[in-house]
């Protein structure tokens, strides 16, 4: 999914990308916005902010699973893990090399555990 919210860029999400989350809900179980912070000129908190806003436009019976870019590691991931609105899971774009570094792998593990705990506590 395009990571823009419905109000950004004069409604470009639906006007240009044809991504109306309500209309697509019948065909989509998990929405996966591509959160590429540095490539998009955004801060590491972009994913966390997107999750906070998502209740306003993602159908309540659907999940959101962020795709984070390895270039933004680990700040984007740890910020997302601290979100009050949890991501249903995490995909890490181009992240395989990160797991060759024990400290980076442990950061991923702890962040995912924090997300899982939030999901369990909220019944997500």
Q: How would you sum up this structure, described in words?
A:
With 124 residues, this protein is an alpha/beta fold. The chain has one domain (8-122). 40% of the residues lie in helices and 11% in strands. It has helices at 12-15, 21-24, 37-40, 46-54, 75-81, 102-122; strands spanning 30-31, 34-35, 63-64, 66-69, 90-93. Helix 5 links the parallel strand 4 and strand 5 (90-93). It is globular, with a radius of gyration of 14 Å. The mean pLDDT is 93.
Please give a handful of descriptors for the protein shown.
single chain, 124 residues, alpha/beta, 3-stranded parallel β-sheet, two-stranded parallel ribbon
Main pleated-sheet profile? 3 strands, parallel
Strand content: 5-15%
Unreliable sequence segments = none
> How many domains, as an integer?
1
Number of helices: 6
Helix content class = 25-40%
Please provide the count of β strands.
5
């Amino acid at each position: 999914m395009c990571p823009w919210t419905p109000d950004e860029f004069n409604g470009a999400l639906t006007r240009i990308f044809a991504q109306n989350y309500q209309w697509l809900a019948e065909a989509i179980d998990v929405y996966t916005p591509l959160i590429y912070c540095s490539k998009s000129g955004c801060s590491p908190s972009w994913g966390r902010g997107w999750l906070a806003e998502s209740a306003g436009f993602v159908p309540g019976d659907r999940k959101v699973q962020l795709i984070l870019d390895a270039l933004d590691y680990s700040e984007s991931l740890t910020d997302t893990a601290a979100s009050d609105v949890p991501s249903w899971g995490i995909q890490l774009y181009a992240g395989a090399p990160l797991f060759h570094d024990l400290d980076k792998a442990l950061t991923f593990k702890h962040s995912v555990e924090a997300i899982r705990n939030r999901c369990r506590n909220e019944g997500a």
